Amino acid sequence: MDFEVTADWQASYAQPIRLSAGESFCLTGRREEWDGHVWLWARCAAGLEGWVPDSLVVQGPTGPRAKEDYSALELTCRVGERLTGEREAQGWVYCRNRSGASGWVPRRNLAALPR
Description:
Layout: E1 2-5, E2 18-19, E3 25-34, E4 37-44, E5 49-53, E6 57-60, E7 63-66, E8 70-71, E9 82-89, E10 92-96, E11 102-106, E12 110-112
Antiparallel strand pairs: 1-9, 1-12, 2-8, 3-4, 4-5, 6-7, 9-10, 10-11
């Protein structure tokens, strides 16, 4: 689905957390709600930290594990820019811009374009 950016967004982290499916990680206990969805602050073995959706977390015998591959990479974008949405999750859309850069953008910053 194609979107137009309705409010600027600046990526929050230079080095966001990345997890592979099955990878174990640490939850710090920090929790936040974003547009009605629960996000948890996590730290991976490589030392990167960031927010992960609670739907990503599965409990294994040794603690939390990632249900699927995940990256918290955000996409900086400006009002009027057109983006292609590839996936939507918990109030965010994973988008690609015309130059090929990709990352998450808050859904509330986007307007769906007619097909």
